[in-house]
Amino acid sequence: MLETNMTFRQFLLHDYRNEGLEKDLVFLLEDIATACAIISNHVRDGAFKGNLGVAGSTNIQGEDQKQLDVIADEEFIRHCSNCSRVAALVSEEVDEVHWLKKETKAGDYIVYFDPLDGSSNLDVNLSVGSIFSIVQIAEPIDTSTDASVLIKGSKQICAGYSVYGPSTSLVITTGHSVNGFTHQQGTGEFRLTFKDMTIPETTSEFAINASRYRLWDEPIRAYFDECLAGVDGARGSNTNMRWTASMVADIHRILTRGGVFLYPMDEGNRATGGKLRLMYEANPMGFIVEQAGGSASTGTQRILDVTPTSHHQRVPVIMGSKDEVARIDAFHGKS
Ligand code: P6P
Predict the structure, then answer these.
(1) Where residue 316 sits, what CATH number does that domain have?
(2) Same domain flag for 111 and 255
(3) Which of 217, 218, 235 is nearest to 226 (CA)?
(4) What range does the domain containing 97 cover?
(5) Same structural domain, 139 and 51
(6) Average pLDDT of 233-246?
(7) 142 by DSSP, 3-state: which?
(8) Cα–Cα–Cα angle for 304, 310, 311, nearest 5°?
(9) Which residues are known binding-site members for substrate?
(10) How many independent structural domains does the chain possess?
(11) ipTM for the complex?
(12) Which of 76-80, 248-252, 299-303, 330-334 has the lowest average pLDDT?
C-alpha cells in the first residue's frame, strides 16, 4: 500500500515486493535520486560558486555548455556507474555512447539522460531539471557500435525527471502508474507527495513557443489559431497559454493539472527532424505521460513507436491531455 510521505526507499521496496521491481533497479534508482539531490544543491548554490555561466565548451547539440550542464552530467555518470548492470550511458551532453562494459548480458540496463534540461533558464532563476530513461536489454548487445543503444521508447522499463524549482520534485514511472516525490529539507529524503499522478483527458491550456508561428506547418497554425479564437471559434471555449522554455517544468505542470505541450517540426528545425531529443527527452516524458493517462505523439505517430536512427535524434513532440493530443493529431489528418 503506497502511503503519502513514505520515503523513496520505502516506495521502491513496495514495488520490489509487489510489482517485481528488480533489486538492482532499486539501487540504480536510489543512485539516480541521489544524483538529482546533489544536482539540485549545485543549482541552488550556483550563484555562490560562479557556476551559472557558460563552461566555455559546446555539446554535441552545438549548444554552449553551462558549467552546471557539465557538473550534472558528471553526477549522473558517477552515480549510474555504481550499478554493475548498467552497460551503457547515453547523455545529451556527450557525443558518443559511454560504454561501461565490453561484454554485456541479458538483463543489463542502458540509461539515457538529459542531465540538466532547460539550462538556459539557470541565470534567470527559472526551473530546470534532469530527465532519465532506462531500458533493459533482452540479450547481449554489441558494444563496438553505438547503434546497439537504438532501442524504441516502448521498451523502456522506467523513466523519470527531477524539477529543480521552488521545491525539488522527482517523478517516476516503472510501468505501473506515475508517482511524485518531494525532496525534504533537513532529512534529505525524497518523500511521496503526489501519488498515482493522472493527466485530465481534457484541457484548455497549451504550451508552445508562439514566436515560431511563422515557421510552423499549417496543421499547427490551424490548431493555434483555433486556441486563440477561443469561445468565438470552433473550439467554443477560451484557452490559456504557458511556456517556460523548460520541458520538465511544462510537463510537470501538465501532469499536475492537465494541458498539452508542443514542440512541432517547423521550417527552423526541419533539417534536424525537430528540436527535442528522442532518446532522453521525448521517450522518457512520453512514457510518463502515457502512464499518467495522456498521449504522446510526433503529430503523425506515437512517440514510443518511433524507431531510433541515432542516439541524438530529434523528433517533433506533442504530448499531454489525451483529447487535446487527439485534436491536434486530427489537424494533421491523423484520426
Ligand atoms: P525554446 C530546453 O533547451 C529545451 O530543450 C526544452 O526543455 C524546452 O521545452 C525547449 O528546449 C525550449 O525551446 O526554442 O523555446 O528555447
Answers:
(1) 3.40.190.80
(2) no
(3) 235
(4) 8-194
(5) yes
(6) 96
(7) coil
(8) 75
(9) 117-120, 209, 275
(10) 2
(11) 0.98
(12) 330-334
